[in-house]
Amino acid sequence: MKRFLTVAALTILASPALADDDLMKVQASGDVASTMDALEAAVEGAGATIFARVDHAAGAEGAGMELAPSQVLIFGNPKLGTPAMQADPLAGLYLPMKVLVYEDADGQAWLVYEDPEEMFDELDGIDDDAEYIQQMTGALGKLTKKAAGG
């Protein structure tokens, strides 16, 4: 199961459909590991379920390659995700939520996630003004701000 989640996360993150204007970036005050630890604590503190923490740099190292620190946290809350899937079952392709924490070329750590409104934009049954989209957007904003040290 853990292997499946890792492959799913890598596939979703590599998707060409993710345009830069659909991504929300938050500058972190710490490094990737400490920022991811803070994000994990914030998610657990909010009562959400953590499904996986994927360390891309460790995966690259295992393949004999180098990659700057980069980790993804996959998490969710059925109270927010279920209504989206009830509106359109294809929302399950985008859920659970994911936040990437990576180090850029200058050594700065960033938290990045896809804007929920944009994420579900192509789905017919999802209304941009749905309460659960606003709740997801608010939760991601609060969680990443807290993890960033802000």
TrEMBL record:
InterPro entries in the record: DUF302, TT1751-like_sf
Entry keyword annotation includes Signal: yes
Keywords assigned: Signal
Top-rank lineage group of the source organism: Bacteria
Residues annotated as transmembrane: none
Domain DUF302: 54-116
Coiled coil: none
Extent of the signal sequence: 1-19
Pfam families: DUF302
Protein name: Camphor resistance protein CrcB
Record organism: Roseovarius atlanticus
